Amino acid sequence: MQTAPAKKMLIMNILDILKRYSDQDHTLSQKQIIDYLRQDYQMAADRKSVARNLTDLMDAGYPIECSETPRTYLTKDGRRETANILSDFYLERDFTDAELRLLIDSLLFSKHVPYSQCKELVGKLEGLSSLYFRSRTKHIRTMPDNAPVNRQLFYTIEVLDEAMEIGRQVSFIYNKYGTDKKLHPEHNAEGQIRNYVINPYQIAAANGRYYLICNYDKYDNVAHFRLDRITDIQMMDTPVKSMRKVKGLEDGLNLPKHMAEHMYMFSGESAPVTFRAKKYIVTDVLDWFGNDVQFYNETENEVTVRVTANLKAMRRWAMQYALHIKVLEPEVLSEQVKNDLLEALKHYE
Question: Where are the alpha helices (DSSP H) in 60-204?
Answer without folding.
Answer: 97-108, 115-126, 131-137, 153-166
